[in-house]
Amino acid sequence: MTKQSYTVAGQSIPTITIGYGVFLALWGIVISQLSSSDSITSYAPTFAGVPLLITGILATKIPEKRKLWMHIAATFGLICAIGGTRFFMVMSDGINYASGSMLMLFVTGLIYTYFCVQSFIWARKQREAAEA
């Protein structure tokens, strides 16, 4: 019996996307409040998390458009990783709320994007096997 979808630790990519979106949204809110930041940029994880949450939900609720929503989600994951590279410009200042958020975005964005790419590769192989 073949798997119907790619999973990581038993979770589908849309489910992981929803979880990652919630995590990022909460992270941005909590860190902004803890740090008493006046900067809108402290909410950057939230700004990335909300679209991830929405695309994950839409990929689950509208399965015929799952490919579209997951490609959009993967793009946001890549944006997180790229945005997090700013950590390497400020890391000499030490770890604080801002640089910690940048590092978190870099690491989790890379991991999430990796899972998405693996999922896309898996789906292509499944499609090719079905056509053969």
Description:
- The chain has one domain.
- The two termini are 17 Å apart.
- It has helices spanning 13-34, 44-61, 66-84, 87-90, 97-131, and strands at residues 7-8, 11-12.
- By secondary structure, it is mainly alpha-helical.
- It is built from five helices and two strands.
- α1 (13-34) packs antiparallel against α5.
Q: How are the secondary structure elements laid out?
A:
Blueprint lengths: L6 E2 L2 E2 H22 L9 H18 L4 H19 L2 H4 L6 H35 L1
Antiparallel strand pairs: 1-2
Could you give a quick summary of the protein structure above?
The protein has 132 residues and is mainly alpha-helical.
Measured as a percent range, the helix fraction is over 70%
Radius of gyration, Cα only, in angstroms? 16 Å
Beta-strand portion reads under 5%
Number of helices: 5
Mean model confidence by pLDDT:
95
Uncertain runs are none
How does the helix and strand content classify structurally?
mainly alpha
* Largest beta-sheet details: 2 strands, antiparallel
The quaternary structure here is single chain
Shape: elongated
Question: How many domain modules?
Answer: 1
- What is the ordering of alpha helices and beta strands? EEHHHHH
Could you give the order of strands across the largest sheet? 1-2
Distance between the termini: 17 Å
Total number of strands: 2
